[in-house]
Amino acid sequence: MSNLHEYAKEELDRIDDGTEEQAEINKDVMDIVDKFSQQGHSGFSASYALSIITRLLAFYPLTPLTGATGEWQYVASDGKRNTGNLYQNTRYSALFKDDTGCWDIDRIIVSYEGDPDNTFYGPKYYVKFPYKPAVNKHYYIVLPKVFAREGVPNPSQKDYVAFTNDEELKKHILNQLD
Questions:
Q1: Into how many domains does the chain fold?
Q2: Domain span at residue 106?
Q3: Minimal CA–CA distance to 71: which of 47, 84, 90, 92?
Q4: Which of 21, 33, 97, 119 is most buried per CB count within 10 Å?
C-alpha cells in the first residue's frame, strides 16, 4: 500500500457517516486514489496530472476559450430581453453570450449579510477572449438584507458594484473591460 492510499483512507474515515452512500463514495474515491498511485507519478507529473484531472472532472476547458462560432449553441430567442439571441458555450456551460457580451454565471457569489442560507450566483461576470476560467475561483459580494425583503427590486449592476472594493471585479460586472 502506498502512503497516498493510507492517507486517503484515514481522511475518508474522518467523513464517514456510516451511510451506504458515503461508503460507496469512499470506495469510488479509493479506486481512483489507488489507480493514481499505481501510475508512479513523480512530484511534477503528479501535480500536472492532477491539474488536468481537476479541470476535466469539473467540466472546465483545458485551453482558453476563443469565442469562435463553433464554441456556441443556440439557447433562446430574444423574448422580452431585447438583447438578441442567447447562446451557451459548448466547452464551458457556465458561459453565455448575447448582444450585450459574454459572461460567466459561476464567478460571483452573493449573500445577504453573509447569510449562508441565502446565497446565490450573482450578477453577470463579463469576459473577453481568450478566456480560461479558473476552477473554483469565485468573487463574493455581501449585500444588505434589505435586498432580500419581499417587494424590493432585485439589485442592479450598480448595486452590486457599490458593495465591492475590487476595481477589477467592478469592470467585469459593468462590462467595462479593456
A1: 2
A2: 69-173
A3: 90
A4: 97
